Amino acid sequence: MLRIKGLSKRIPGGPKVLHDISFEAYEGDFIAVKGSSGSGKSMLLKCLALQESWSSGTYMFNGKDVLKEGWLAKQKVKQQVAYLEEKPFLYPEKTGLKNVIIGSVNQTPAWRRWTGMVRNDDYMGAMDLIEKRGLLDKAHTKAKHLSGGERQRMAVARALVHGAKVIVADEPVSGLDPHAADAVLSELKALCKNEGLIVIAVLHQGDWAERYADRILGLNAGKLVLDVYGRRLTEREKMLL
Ligand SMILES: Nc1ncnc2c1ncn2[C@@H]1O[C@H](COP(=O)(O)OP(=O)(O)OP(=O)(O)O)[C@@H](O)[C@H]1O
């Protein structure tokens, strides 16, 4: 379980971009974040994934007060709270499988990525997760030849192999055709429902949030202005964003 209380973020020497944000997320929740350009969606996700420092606030994850923990404990949280960029970086010349095993910059220690050391368990786990994503026929394809949707789904498999319990995804379906976007979001939704993951995804465009999310958070100028169950937003609610 994730409990965020009073999260504020000031850019050093610059403006405050997140103001006193509080919410909770439980196992199985698929939460969408909406808000216009510059409202703080990406910054919120980066703070949740500890890619950005917090100016103030409390971050409770599975009963631990994360910001009060030491470096090692924070690294463990980074492994469990995976950050998925809009266009996840995959090593273009390496296969999907190799990318999944090596892991992402955010989730896997540098020595692991440099040496490319692989345990037998990692290999089996990676193949299993790639197969579950319906990407078995792409496991040995170089990443540069994967489509946008396949890259996203490979990145999801990579996050899971390295222990993700929470996935924070920044615009995971931006630039994808509707069919590929449906595939990515169905998969994220299934991970929540079947495996109890928490997914927090920026889904500002279109009606993806309304169709897939259990809950919708809305940001405006860095403030949380909306926190509702996933459903079609009213005109008044849309005006808040
Ligand atoms: N390093 C930085 N220095 C100064 N301002 C920053 C920095 N990073 C983000 N900001 C500002 O913080 C605010 C929130 O940015 P953020 O990228 O989170 O917005 P967003 O809602 O994700 O926007 P978009 O939908 O356009 O990606 C913006 O006003 C942005 O200019």
TrEMBL record:
Molecular functions (GO terms): ATP binding; ATP hydrolysis activity; transmembrane transporter activity
GO cellular component, one term: plasma membrane
Pfam families documented for this protein: ABC_tran
Domain of life: Bacteria
Domain ABC transporter positions: 2-241
Record's keyword annotation contains S-adenosyl-L-methionine: no
Entry keywords, A to Z: ATP-binding, Nucleotide-binding
Designated name of the protein: ATP-binding cassette domain-containing protein
Species in which this protein is naturally found: Paenibacillus nanensis
